[in-house]
Design a protein that fits this description.
Helix content is about 20%, strand content about 50%. By secondary structure, the chain is of the alpha+beta class. A five-stranded mixed sheet has the order 1-2-3-5-4, covered by helices on one side. The model has no long low-confidence stretch (mean pLDDT about 90).
Length: about 110
């Protein structure tokens, strides 16, 4: 399974529309955009990578209070045993009326034979 498909599965119960890269339809009052960030081999044994770490940014956009959505998103990832590496309020976008909040997550995958 890929990181992006896992993220979409984890976010489905939150009940907010989710897209990857950019929200392509007319944006509703609340939506989430997922952007892949990195893929790293950080752990090695005998000069071979044994863990493949994938990270992504979850951008939450809402015209209302972002706190309940943020809490639901963070809880969903912690329950799914993902690592939450960052949480940050980006700001209020006056031109669109959206609050923008990010949650960065990482998941660890065993490497396949290289």
């Amino acid at each position: 399974m890929s990181l992006l498909s896992e993220i979409h599965d984890i976010l489905r119960p939150v009940g907010i529309p989710v897209e990857t890269g950019v929200f392509s339809d007319k944006a509703p009052d609340e939506y989430i955009v997922v952007v892949p960030l990195t893929e790293n081999y950080d752990y090695f044994a005998d000069n071979q990578p044994v863990v493949d770490i994938h990270e992504a940014r979850i951008s939450i956009f809402t015209k209302g209070n972002y706190l309940s959505i943020k809490n639901a998103v963070v809880k969903a990832f912690l329950v799914a045993e993902f690592t939450v590496t960052n949480r940050q309020y980006i700001g209020y976008e006056a031109d669109t009326g959206y609050h923008h909040y990010i949650v960065d997550v990482a998941n660890y995958y065993e490497t396949e034979d290289i």
